Amino acid sequence: MRIAFLGYGTVGRALYALLARRRAALSREYGIDYVVTGVASRRGGWRVNAAGLEPEQPTGEIVDNVTQWLERSAAEVVFEALPLEPMSGQPALDYLRAAIEHGVHVISANKGPVVHGHRLLTELAAARGVCYRFESAVMDGAPVFSLARACIPLAGVRSVRGIFTSTATVVLEAIESGHTLDEGIGLAQRMGIAEADPGYDVDGWDSAMKLCAVANVVLGADIRPSDVTRAGIRELREADVRRARLEGSPFRLVGEISRGANGVVAARVGPERCAADGPLGAVRGTTLVMHYEADVFPGGLTVTSHDPDPTTTAYGMMADLIGVMGTPR
Amino acid sequence: MRIAFLGYGTVGRALYALLARRRAALSREYGIDYVVTGVASRRGGWRVNAAGLEPEQPTGEIVDNVTQWLERSAAEVVFEALPLEPMSGQPALDYLRAAIEHGVHVISANKGPVVHGHRLLTELAAARGVCYRFESAVMDGAPVFSLARACIPLAGVRSVRGIFTSTATVVLEAIESGHTLDEGIGLAQRMGIAEADPGYDVDGWDSAMKLCAVANVVLGADIRPSDVTRAGIRELREADVRRARLEGSPFRLVGEISRGANGVVAARVGPERCAADGPLGAVRGTTLVMHYEADVFPGGLTVTSHDPDPTTTAYGMMADLIGVMGTPR
After folding, report:
1. Which are the contacts of B88, defined by CB distance < 8 A and separation ≥ 6?
2. Residue numbers in B near A297 (CB within 8 A)
3. Residue B282: is its pLDDT beyond 70?
4. Bridge-partner residues for B144, per DSSP?
5. How far B125 CA sits from the closest chain A CA (Å)?
6. Is A275 an interface residue toward B (CB < 8 Å)?
7. Which DSSP letter does residue A84 get?
8. A304 in reach of chain B (CB within 8 A)
9. Cβ <8 Å between A151 and B151
10. Measured between alpha carbons, how far is A136 from A317 in angstroms, rounded to an integer?
11. How far apart are CA A226 and CA A205, in angstroms?
12. Which residues, numbered 241 to 270 in chain B, qualify as contacts with chain A under a Cβ-Cβ cut-off of 8 Å?
């Protein structure tokens, strides 16, 4: 099977390394044997080598655009992990569309295209007989969309609450321990987890994007980040953040989507105090959590991913690959 | 599609009610339209009616044995929720085997057959081209086996820790609040969650059974409850239980399976102090939790099902039905 990497930053490299570590098991347990025939990045351009290449030091030819890259790499699966463009999902959205129209399975870690093009890409993929998967777009590769699809069908999910933006938790914890908001942002940037524009994380846009992805895919809604009632953590007074922690129910940036009695899905994100013994209570550092309310789970079902790293995001993409191309042996 | 209930107690009734509530959605979203053509219980015998019956007040004929019941009901899917027999899994194991040999899909909520016959039943089902599913055998219908199959393939799970027996938590909490162990057992029995022999729960046998099911299915081991290093909560001094609670890290009955460096899977169950801010820390009442350690989840992945009830167990069986027979529309 020929695969290609569209975007080759931290996640792309982690995915390449993970696939290499699992090469024998992928073949033995799922019949997946792969060769990399394309890699594209801002720095390296559209690189192809139908005979196979090492993405770390790619050989082969540089072509001009995505169409040539898809043709000459003859990739059957494209892994997309380009930088996020929150407002339009571009250019990733156009590239994914081109790949699908070319008859290629696409596996994306990017929430931009999910938010701005989920319906379009899904319908296009169905028409072309290929798959569009994006497990890693929310919760860094922990099961979200595969869980909804394979584990909780017709569970009657009423609402989903969670902590989706680890930068916000890291900043709040910095404030709790006596630092300022700006110092907390600096820390998150040094940890490599903040987006280029830290306002995107602390003002709730990142959570809003992820809520839209979950709402549109899992609850069948059709909302955009501008539809999300949104507040960030900048509005909090630092003294209040510290007092809440001392009182045992710290502020966290919580996102929630719920279906009202009228069937309409509403979404909101904002700082909330989380009791230590509640489902969102144990969240520290970069840990992410999603809590589902449904009539078949009287107290709810919670999925918590503790301290994910780029390998976790890469793993979500590998799990998508297995779901799309694997045949259990 | 013809379905039949083998065992019709609390879980069977909850399943029948849940299927009725989801009838329209099962048809519309998964193409599943069903009629009940058989129900079997100790009290009611082997009842069949090929024209359809109401399991609450079954009409039709009473036949002599499982073979006649399978033939005359012409069921395509059998839901098994018979009382557990921990030492052999019988008679459920023989009945499931008969159903599979008859070419029927079987969906079981019973951990006995998983522990004592998983390999046999799975191989037999593969040979007959039918499915054997048992999502509800562990964690009361919250995703365990579907999660392992569909969400975390090749995650490299090293160990699974969890709280699998809600009776043990309820008894420990009763002791924490000043009652005796026997009073706690009485409470669990009045809540309807304790097994007929409460020693089965408090001495760790229930957890040991569930650990074996997870070890054998998810980690590919082949162990039996007698292979599990086992301690129960009876060994604890009540004063120690109360002090641990006051110190903020109460005792819980924790089960753990792990794969050693030599590849061998070891399993143990016993009381452990659980820190409030750890992955097993928020567990109260009947809440169940499983925590997976794997290299792709640096701090682990935790699934928590808060306050499950018989509908949760029934839901796991319905999710199995959708997995086996559903075609997403």
Report:
1. B112, B116
2. 142, 305-306, 308, 312, 315
3. no
4. none
5. 15
6. no
7. P
8. yes
9. yes
10. 6
11. 9
12. none
User: pTM, whole model, 2 decimals?
Assistant: 0.96
The greatest distance separating any two alpha carbons of chain B, rounded to the nearest whole angstrom, comes to 62
Query: Using CB atoms and an 8 Å cut-off, which of residues 135-194 of chain A contact chain B?
Result: 141-143, 146-147, 149-156
State pLDDT tens for residues B205-259.
999 999 999 999 999 999 999 999 999 999 999 999 999 999 999 999 999 999 9
- Return the H-helix or E-strand segment holding A238: helix A238-246
- Residue A27, SS3? helix
Q: Is the pLDDT of residue A282 over 80?
A: no
Q: Are the C-beta atoms of residues A291 and A275 closer than 8 Å to each other?
A: no
Scanning every residue of chain A, which has its alpha carbon at the shortest distance from the alpha carbon of B310?
A296
Torsions phi, psi of A46, nearest 5?
A: -90, 95
The pLDDT of residue A276 is 84
| pLDDT tens by residue, A203-260 | 999 999 999 999 999 999 999 999 999 999 999 999 999 999 999 999 999 999 999 9
| Residue type at position B192 | G
DSSP state of A178: T
Q: State how far residue B281 is from chain A, nearest Cα, in angstroms.
A: 8
pLDDT at residue number A238: 96
Of B94, B53, B98, give the one whose Cα is nearest residue B73: B53
Residues A41, B130: Cα–Cα separation, whole Å? 47
DSSP codes, B107-139: EE--HHHHHHHHHHHHHHHHHHT--EE-GGGSG
CA distance B316 to chain A (A): 8
Tell me which residue in A297, A302, A322 faces B312 most closely, judged by beta carbons.
Answer: A297
pLDDT of residue B271: 97
pLDDT of B314 reads 98
| Mean pLDDT over each residue of chain A, to the nearest integer | 95
- Please tell me whether the interface predicted TM-score (ipTM) of this complex is above 0.90: yes
Q: Give the chain B residue nearest A280 (alpha carbons).
A: B282
A/B interface, count of CB pairs below 8 Å: 149
Chain B residue with minimal CA distance to A28? B154
Amino acid at B290: M
| Residue appearing with tokens 């169409």 | A67
Mean local confidence (pLDDT), B33-42: 97
Distance CA B46, CA B40 (A): 5
Q: Alpha-carbon distance B40 to B9, whole Å?
A: 10
- Determine which helix (DSSP H) or strand (DSSP E) holds B197, and give its type and residue range: none
Tell me which residue of A284, A277, A279, A324 sits closest to A307, measured CA to CA.
A284
Number of Cβ atoms within 10 Å of the Cβ of A33: 9
pLDDT at A125: 98
Q: Does A305 touch chain B (CB under 8 A)?
A: yes
